[in-house]
């Protein structure tokens, strides 16, 4: 059995110079997932495709052709990305009989053209509506750091696979925090890119005004490489000089565990942050995000709900019905609040290059918990996982969730790094500097999938 490097960049370097075989890596990855996915992260292994893709990479290397920056790198995709020849389930039972996709989603095709090897599709909340990856049809995805805890959602299957060390990269979607929440709970780097920058062609939609697609990785460098490939262009280095930094106060300083706030304070001190910034509409924006999500999602699925409501996951069904019943006046009020909040974020980013906030208010709740106490307040163990991500989604700006360095045995928790539109490179470079300073780190899961 070969030893597969931990990072995408190391795998690609080994394949490109002939020290590693893409086919050998694909076989090893498929075998380890098949034997050790006790986390319930995978919905479908794509063995035949993976080996064919890997063979093409090895053939390119053999004739001296560059197979791409992700040569031989295994990756997985959330089961709402089209994969040629497969049905895109979006986590829903009623899509089991849908026609197979005729081609890959655009970002999947770009990754494969760059040499990456697709090995699996992953579990998710039905129709991407949730923060926990508890799926009535496919079961609950478990956290690789503690299988008795949630992985987060709705991209929890992708996050759990990367967190368990079974693949170095995986794709997810982020509407209200569906990349940032599981990245925080599984101890990974995860990016919500600038809204509209990365193609969503071939990705099953949820809330089109908010939907983005991005990647999970165990290093900022790997995240940057994958993002550039998905973007379809090279990244431009960030402008020189020390970034102007502020911590988000108010809503973002409340209802958060002491550990995450202390970690943010350490980062702020290292980056020489100025006074905190308060976004006055943040609480209202969070409510507006809830309402707009439910309303658009509910209307998207209204005909299916009328035809066969019992085919839906019960939790998803009830929220979609409630959303579809929202009065027009309430939706218009939510849109007005959203516009005001977008302006507040834009104003804050005129005077600051980087804003800091918790990614989740707490580390991963136990699967059997319905509530959790944070800062003396009793919160929903599921709905409030998106407490700090949901309002920021409205702003359309790039946000990177980075795992705080934690003492051994402590469950992961992340910090959001927020920048202006198109400034993903600043996020990657800042995250890399925080890794070098020992302030953020992706640690191997102490409870691996083998033990689950």
Give the structure's gist in a few sentences:
With 452 residues, the chain is of the alpha+beta class. 37% of the residues lie in helices and 15% in strands.
Can you walk through the features of this model?
The protein has 452 residues and is of the alpha+beta class. The chain has a domain at 8-237: Amidase signature (AS) domain (Amidase signature (AS) enzymes, Alpha-Beta Complex). The protein contains 14 helices and 16 strands. It has helices at residues 8-16, 22-36, 47-62, 106-113, 156-163, 180-186, 220-231, 258-270, 282-300, 302-308, 314-324, 328-351, 390-393, 424-436, and strands at 42-45, 74-78, 117-122, 134-135, 139-140, 142-143, 146-150, 169-174, 189-192, 212-217, 245-247, 354-358, 371-374, 377-380, 399-403, 414-418. The strands form 4 sheets. A 10-stranded mixed β-sheet has the order 1-3-2-8-10-9-15-16-12-11, sandwiched between helices. β4 and β5 (139-140) form a beta hairpin. α4 packs across α7. The longest helix is centred in the C-terminal third of the chain and has 24 residues, at 328-351.
Can you count the helices?
14
> What kind of sheet is the major sheet?
10 strands, mixed
CATH architecture of the domain at 8-237: Alpha-Beta Complex
CATH topology of the domain at 8-237: Amidase signature (AS) enzymes
| DSSP, total strands | 16
Shape type = globular
Structural class: alpha+beta
Kindly provide the radius of gyration, computed on alpha-carbon positions and rounded to a whole number of angstroms. 21 Å
User: CATH top level of the domain at 8-237?
Assistant: Alpha Beta
Helix content: 25-40%
Order of helices and strands: HHEHEHEEEEEHEHEEHEHHHHHEEEHEEH
Spans where pLDDT lies below 50 across 5 or more residues: 447-452
Strand content of the residues, in percent? 15-25%
Termini distance?
A: 22 Å
**CATH homologous superfamily (4th level) name of the domain at 8-237:** Amidase signature (AS) domain
Average pLDDT metric: 95
Strand order of the largest sheet: 1-3-2-8-10-9-15-16-12-11
């Amino acid at each position: 059995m070969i030893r597969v490097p931990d990072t995408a960049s190391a795998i690609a370097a080994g394949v490109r110079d002939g020290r590693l075989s893409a086919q050998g890596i694909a076989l090893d990855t498929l075998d380890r997932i098949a034997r050790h996915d006790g986390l319930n992260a995978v919905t479908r292994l794509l063995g035949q495709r993976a080996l064919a893709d890997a063979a093409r990479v090895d053939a390119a290397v053999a004739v001296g052709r560059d197979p791409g920056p992700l040569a031989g790198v295994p990756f997985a995709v959330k089961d709402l990305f089209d994969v040629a020849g497969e049905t895109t389930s979006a986590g829903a039972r009623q899509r089991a009989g849908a026609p197979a996709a005729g081609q890959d989603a655009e970002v999947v095709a770009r990754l494969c053209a760059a040499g990456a090897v697709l090995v699996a599709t992953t579990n998710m909340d039905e129709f991407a509506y949730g923060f926990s990856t508890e799926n009535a049809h496919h079961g609950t995805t478990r956290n690789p750091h503690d299988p008795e805890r949630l992985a987060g959602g709705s991209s929890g299957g992708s996050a759990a696979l990367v967190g368990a060390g079974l693949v170095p990269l995986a794709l997810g979607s982020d509407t209200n925090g569906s990349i940032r929440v599981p990245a925080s709970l599984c101890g990974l780097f995860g990016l919500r890119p600038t809204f509209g920058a990365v193609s969503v062609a071939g990705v099953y939609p949820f809330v089109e005004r908010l939907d983005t697609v991005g990647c999970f990785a165990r290093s900022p460098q790997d995240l940057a490489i994958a993002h550039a490939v998905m973007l379809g262009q090279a990244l431009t280095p960030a402008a020189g000089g020390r970034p102007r930094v502020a911590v988000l106060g108010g809503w973002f300083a409340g209802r958060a565990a002491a550990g995450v706030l202390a970690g943010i304070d350490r980062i702020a001190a290292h980056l020489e942050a100025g006074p905190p910034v308060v976004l006055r509409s943040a609480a209202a924006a969070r409510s507006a995000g809830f309402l707009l999500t439910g309303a658009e999602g509910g209307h998207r699925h209204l005909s299916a709900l009328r035809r066969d409501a019992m085919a839906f996951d019960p939790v998803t069904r009830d929220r979609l019905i409630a959303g579809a019943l929202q009065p027009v006046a309430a939706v218009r009020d939510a849109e007005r609040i959203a516009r005001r909040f977008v302006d507040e974020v834009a104003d804050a980013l005129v005077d600051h290059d980087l804003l800091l906030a918790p990614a989740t208010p707490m580390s991963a709740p136990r699967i059997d918990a319905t509530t959790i106490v944070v800062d003396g307040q009793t919160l929903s163990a599921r709905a409030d996982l998106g407490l700090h991500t949901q309002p920021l989604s409205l702003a359309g700006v790039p946000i990177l969730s980075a795992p705080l360095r934690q003492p051994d045995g402590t469950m992961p928790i992340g910090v959001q790094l927020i920048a202006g539109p198109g400034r993903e490179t600043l996020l990657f470079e800042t995250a890399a500097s925080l890794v070098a300073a020992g302030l953020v780190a992706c640690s191997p899961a102490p409870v691996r999938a083998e033990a689950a």
